[in-house]
Write a sequence for this structure.
């Protein structure tokens, strides 16, 4: 586990190869949002496209570090301290 700026924790599940998105990039993700107890609060059935600069702060931080085709598990704080 590695801590990124802003208190985001990440675990690399699969290495990616290729470039990383920039802060203004459009990214495609397939995600499952879980609470600390493991209960799912949100999930994408299919990959979703969105602008990185419109994502929550933890995703903006982490997704700029993720190489193409990588799979990471993230833990993002609910608010920034």
């Amino acid at each position: 586990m590695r801590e990124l700026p802003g208190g985001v924790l990440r675990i690399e599940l699969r290495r990616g190869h290729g470039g990383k998105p920039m802060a203004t990039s459009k990214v495609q993700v397939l995600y499952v949002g879980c609470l600390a107890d493991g209960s799912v609060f949100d999930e994408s059935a299919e990959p979703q496209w969105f602008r990185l600069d419109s994502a929550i702060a933890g995703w903006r931080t982490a997704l700029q570090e993720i190489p193409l085709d990588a799979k990471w598990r993230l833990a993002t704080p609910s608010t920034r301290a």
User: Anything to note?
Assistant: The chain is about 10% helix and 35% strand. The CA atoms of residues 16 and 69 lie 5 Å apart. Helices lie at 57-63. The chain has one domain: 2-75.
